[in-house]
Every structure is written in structure tokens, then in C-alpha cells.
Design a protein that fits this description.
Strand content: 15-25%
Largest sheet: 8 strands, mixed
Number of strands: 11
Order of helices and strands: EEEHHHEHEHEHEHEHHEEE
Distance between the termini: 42 Å
Structural class: alpha/beta
Bound molecules: S-adenosylmethionine
Radius of gyration: 18 Å
Length: about 280
């Protein structure tokens, strides 16, 4: 964990300078309630979770025993997607919203391995992710990385802040990997994605991976119910038709909107997934 961490009851306070802007921040987060960033870290085998997160993670696994394989397959999709975008679509700018606690194959590592000059802006609203942001600021000298502590539900703020790193006159890949299910219908996830897409030029791409409610439907419904009982953020799995709506007006790249391991698999890609995953290009 970055910085000094001190327990104060259920709260952690860390004096940290991890956003990379030179300002000291006081980070406070409640460890008594599960948070999706830390639950995800538990599923991925990381070290940055607390009892409430582990219990929530286990609740989900009880409802859907292949949860860990599915989460790891989503992470592998993220890496293949970034590799495709950098190597085949020629993208050099990435806006990765809902970054999560750093794990294997973070977006900048994959993109800059292909094209060292790539620029990446990471965004998350969880203080636990902010506390680890320094691990995301390890850019190549030719490229740049930045971290924004910001909420997807305020895309204008994200776009404004990201514009100091990204040039919105040139194509950008919008990475929304396993985050849109944290935006309930009442918060207008379709409108949010449209506002992001409206701000980027032709040739930009949208990558989404989204929990399904129409794959292993009974288990997924049980998992969402269990998580929503105990987790701070509520999750909304969506159907193939619902996920297709996010790509309205875009050219969907082959093989279309498929389960994560079916999207341009590597030879060793295998296992369960309940995540609809796709990439599309803005014409
Ligand atoms: C399931 S994790 C996915 C992390 C990473 N994208 C991956 O695929 O490994 C979801 C992440 O989205 C973040 N998140 C959820 N709602 C958000 C919001 N409204 N604004 C910004 N980040 C959000 C959470 O804090 C968490 O880190």
C-alpha cells in the first residue's frame, strides 16, 4: 500500500500524494462496508481488501462459482483490447474509466509496450484506487500517464481534466471495462456514454465489458442480489440487447459483442465468463 496507513475504527486515513499533481491529500475510506474496487482486488488475488470485501466476494462466488475465472477473463480481455487498439487500430490515447486497484496488465503497460508514446488517463472515484494511483504513473519517457479522482457520472469534469494529458482532436480509446454496471439506469448510463463519445473525434474507439443478466441468468441474478445487499455500490447486470445500445451509431469490430474469452482469444484463453465484451469505432 502506498503511503502511511493508520486505522481509526472502520476508517483508514492516509496522508498521500498519489494523484501526481503535487498536492497532499487526506484519504478516508470506510473498511466496514464492501467496495467494488476492493472486492475486485480480492477476486484478482490482490492484497488490498478488508473483511467486508472478502465476505462480499465470497457471497458472489457462492452464487456463481466461476466468478474468479470470469473476472480474470475480463482482465485478460482488457489486455487484448488495449493491444488491439494500440497495434491494429493505431490508437495512442486511452481514457480508462473505472480503473480499479492496479493489477496485472494495466492499460498503460500494455499500450506503451506496443507504442511507448501512448498517453493514458486513468479515472476512478474510489479512494482505495487513488491511494494506489502512483503505481499507474510509471509512464515511459515518451508517453504520459495521469490519474483522475473523478466520477463517471460527471463525464464533463473527466473530459475537462483529461484534456491536459489527452488531445481530444485526435482519436481516443474510451475504456469502460467492468464499470457501467455500477451506473444504474436512473443515472442514465447511455447518456453518459453518448456524452463521452460526442467529445471524441472520428476514429476513436469504445471498449466495453459488462456483466450479463442473460448468461447463466439464475446465478447472475443471485449474485447481483447478494452483492447489492452488502456492497456500497449497487450493480446492474444487463442483457446483450442492453449492452448493444451503448454502441449505437458505431462500427462494431469483429467478432462483435461476445463473452470476454470469445473476443479475439489468445491460444491460452479459456474458461467461464458472464461478461458481454466488445470494441467499436466511431465513424
Ligand atoms: C469491477 S472494478 C473494474 C476494474 C478494472 N476496470 C478491471 O476491469 O479490472 C470497477 C471499478 O469501477 C469503479 N467505479 C465504479 N463506479 C464508478 C463511477 N461512478 N465513477 C468512477 N469509477 C467508478 C470502482 O471504484 C472500481 O474500481
Amino acid at each position: 500500500m502506498v503511503g502511511q496507513v493508520a486505522h481509526r475504527g472502520g476508517t483508514i486515513v492516509t496522508g498521500d500524494n498519489s494523484s501526481g499533481d503535487g498536492a497532499d491529500e487526506l484519504l478516508e475510506f470506510d473498511t466496514s462496508v464492501a467496495h467494488i474496487a476492493r472486492v475486485q482486488d480480492y477476486w484478482l488475488g490482490g492484497k488490498d481488501h478488508f473483511r467486508a470485501d472478502r465476505e462480499a466476494g465470497e457471497e458472489a462466488i457462492e452464487a456463481f462459482p466461476e466468478m474468479v475465472a470470469s473476472v480474470r477473463n475480463t482482465r485478460a480481455f482488457l489486455a487484448r483490447a488495449v493491444r488491439y487498439l494500440a497495434a491494429e487500430a493505431g490508437i495512442r490515447q486511452f481514457l480508462d474509466i473505472g480503473t480499479g486497484i492496479p493489477a496485472v496488465d494495466n492499460t498503460h503497460e500494455v499500450a506503451q509496450a506496443v507504442a511507448p508514446e501512448s498517453r493514458i488517463v486513468y479515472t476512478d472515484h474510489d479512494p482505495a484506487v487513488l491511494a494506489h494511483a502512483r503505481a499507474l504513473l510509471t509512464s515511459t519517457p515518451e508517453g504520459r500517464t495521469a490519474y483522475l479522482d473523478a466520477d463517471l457520472r460527471n463525464p464533463e469534469r473527466i473530459l475537462r481534466k483529461a484534456s491536459t494529458t489527452l488531445d481530444f482532436d485526435r482519436p481516443v480509446a474510451l475504456m469502460l471495462i467492468a464499470v457501467l454496471h455500477c451506473v444504474p439506469d436512473d443515472d442514465d448510463p447511455y447518456g453518459i456514454v453518448k456524452r463521452l463519445l460526442d467529445a471524441v473525434p472520428s476514429g476513436s474507439h469504445l471498449a466495453i465489458s459488462h456483466p450479463a443478466n442473460d448468461i447463466r441468468a439464475t446465478e447472475m441474478a443471485a449474485m447481483a442480489t447478494r452483492l447489492n445487499r452488502v456492497m456500497a455500490q449497487k450493480v446492474t447486470p444487463r442483457s446483450h440487447t442492453d449492452v448493444t445500445r451503448f454502441f449505437e451509431g458505431l462500427e462494431i469490430v469483429e467478432p462483435g459483442i461476445v463473452r470476454a474469452p470469445e473476443w479475439r482469444p489468445d491460444p491460452d484463453t479459456s474458461g467461464a465468463s458472464t461478461m458481454w465484451s466488445a470494441i467499436a469505432r466511431k465513424p
